[in-house]
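pasting for the record
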Amino acid sequence: MQTSLAVRPEVRSRGRSDIVYSKGFYAFLCGAVLIGALLGTVSYCVSGESFIESLGSFQKSFIERRSGMEVSRVLVSSLASSSLLLAAEFLLGMCAVGQPFELAVPVFRGMGLGLTLAQLYAAYGSGKMLFSMGLILPSGIITALVLIAGARESLALSCVYFKLTLSDRQEKGLAESFKLYAAKFMVLEAALALAAAVDCITSYFLIGYF
């Protein structure tokens, strides 16, 4: 009977981790990106005319800047913007109550995708929508998947810290867990570099059609 009672806390802890890494929760995070994309599109559509015009001119200037950029500058710019979101997830993972903000990162990324595509549609019309999607979506999807993976890792570590905060028992340190956590985020950063490279390729081949 004592053995059974001793095992139960570990089973509950393992159950929480299983939820974060489950296929259902992964689908939930993917849905968060899609909801963000929808929110970004809707927010653009319901914005005032002056705001839409300013965003449209900004998007045109974005295309003009991209057409005049060197490949190395496109790579650095693309990698820097996505790395900021990944760094936010990494830091939030070390917070016991960072879960709401960690869930907000995929939504924020989705909003960026939806808003950008809506801007390109408004600026260049439906005739160039396929080129707009080809320019934005390949690297955008890779980045979103990387941020989803980062959100899962940060959520898992935040739950561990939250459990330690509420526990009245002495627990072992998390040095090994943190090393693994940092290693996973280094791999995710490498994946963001791949997404930035894809962004360079799509910009090189498609920017001339705008």
